[in-house]
Amino acid sequence: MSKEVKILLVILGTLDLLAVNGAVGYLLTKKPKPSAAPQVSYIDQCGDECKKYIDAQLKSQNLKVKTETPTPTPATKIVYQTAPKTKVRSTTYVTLAGSGNTTATDWVNVSGSDFYFNPADYPGLVSVYFEANMKLMTGSGRAYVRLYDVTHGIGVQGSEASTQAGVDTVVESGQVSFWAGRNLIRVQMKSLTTESTFYTSGRLRIITEN
């Protein structure tokens, strides 16, 4: 074999080795082609009746949610009430001076019986009554007594009382109505007949409530 032929064989062997290495390298570096994404198709098999049913179910679910929404409970407000104060009723007695007697059938003043009275001096005033200790000398006829408002020149409303008893007797008037303010008051007496009327003493019974 000639020298030229040997050289040629060496060259051809080298070329085959390069070709093989190149092919292997190509296969190792070549990236596989990504597979195509699957195609998804939607087929609407729900007809008009089906859609109506679904809509009805959705509406009923919405209505149920609204119905079941809890109603907020209002906060409880505690109110403390103070028990009303119980009022206490009291009675006060005011003794009146003066005494006397008369056979007059018109009103006459009882000597030394003047006094001043002001309703405002008695807070919570409920009522006033005039009590008198008196008698009719023979017990035949009737003896009278009353309070007189000197300041206004009138008899005090409701203050009149009377008796037919021939012995000392305590009599009481109805509810007395004094005018407002500080007024001068005195006791007066008279007889229905000419029989003697005796006035021994008197007092005011004053009822207040506070």
TrEMBL record:
The protein, known as: Uncharacterized protein
Native species: Candidatus Amesbacteria bacterium GW2011_GWA2_47_11b
Lineage of origin: Bacteria, Candidatus Amesiibacteriota
